[in-house]
Write a structure and sequence with these properties.
mainly alpha, 3-stranded mixed β-sheet
């Protein structure tokens, strides 16, 4: 919304266009009063000349001073620089061209109204008014003049409202000493008619610190959001690295677990073999050799495993294997141990 649109005088005079149909209706009744004395074309030309010429001359030479209402007008000294800039547009060439279009349109409407005057003549004859057609023409001419005035001023205001903000800002304020000479002012001059409208009131001292605190809080919030996003990015990168290591099967701390399990299983198998060997019958002739072998084995035998390995060996030895779960059938060539539960004496 343009800043100069807040000027109340522009909108008040633009709303004056609503009175145009009323004045045209009065003009129609004036044309219908009494019996025609002149040819129709001459009567239309007479009414149009009286109604168009004064207003057209005013808009071309001394446009209407819009900072006025009814019989009062705002003093020139009380005008703001922005209001004086707006007066430049009422003197522009585009406004003068529009002032030529308005009478043409209204004169055409006058001709249409004159065609329907016989319909209202009979109705007016029943009223207690003098049936003087010359009086009717005078009333029609005055009403048509007011219709022109109430349409010419809104059209010129509409031209100003369509001006750009940049054009109004760059325009030079109209000189104070020339406003009274170049504009038509009707009424008594007063210092103020309408209260001024404040577009953007300056902030008070009480609201200034609040605005500063609001800006500071907004900056802190943005910084916190940025730190949170960095933290989320770091966590995501760590998760990607962890996922990659799981995919390759190289988890830290578990890479050497299988060799330790294999070592424990091999030691358990050696212990089982030693137990089976101890249960076999000993040959007297090989007793010395066995004794020597035991001595060698005792010297080369590994040290006792730690408690943790012992617990693992015990858990492994307690688990039934496939050979233990199914009854073993001794082979003919292999001796059956004495402690075999499946042995048959």
């Amino acid at each position: 919304m343009r800043s100069f649109w807040f000027d109340p005088y522009l909108w008040i005079h633009l709303a004056g266009a609503a009175a145009v149909p009323i004045w045209l209706e009065v003009c129609f009744l004036g044309l219908a009063l009494g019996n025609p004395l002149l040819p129709p074309g001459l009567e239309i030309l007479l009414v149009a000349a009286i109604g168009v010429t004064p207003v057209l001359w005013m808009q071309w030479q001394r446009p209407f001073y819009i900072f006025s209402l009814l019989v009062v007008a705002l003093k020139v000294d009380a005008l703001t620089p922005n209001q004086r800039r707006l007066l430049r547009f009422f003197k522009s060439f585009q406004t003068k061209l529009l002032s030529l279009v308005v009478p043409i349109v209204l004169t055409y409407l006058l001709w249409l109204l004159y065609q329907f005057t016989p319909l209202a003549t009979d109705a007016l004859a029943t009223l207690p008014v003098p049936q003087w057609h010359l009086l009717g023409l005078l009333v029609a001419a005055i009403a048509f003049l007011l219709a022109n005035l109430f349409l010419q001023v809104p059209v010129s205001v509409l031209r100003v409202l369509f001006a750009s903000e940049q054009a109004v800002t760059q325009a030079e304020p109209y000189p104070l000493e020339q406003i009274g000479q170049n504009f038509t002012s009707i009424g008594f001059e007063v210092a103020q008619i309408l209260p001024p409208l404040s577009i953007q009131p300056p902030p008070s001292r009480a609201t200034a610190p609040a605005a500063a605190d609001l800006e500071k809080g907004k900056a802190d919030l943005d910084e916190g959001i940025a730190n949170e996003e960095e933290t989320i990015t770091d966590v995501s990168s760590l998760e990607d690295v962890s996922t990659g290591s799981d995919t390759n099967g190289m988890q830290p701390g578990l890479a050497e677990a299988p060799p330790e399990t294999d070592a424990v299983e091999s030691d358990a198998a050696d212990w089982d073999d030693e137990a089976d060997w101890a249960q076999e019958p000993v040959d007297p002739q090989s007793a010395d050799a066995a004794t020597a072998s035991e001595a060698v084995q005792s010297e080369s035998a590994p040290e006792a495993p730690p408690p943790e390995e012992a617990a693992v060996k015990e858990s492994i030895s307690n688990e039934p294997t496939a050979a233990e779960s199914s009854p073993s059938v001794p082979q003919p060539d292999e001796p059956v141990p004495d402690n075999d539960p499946n042995r048959v004496d």
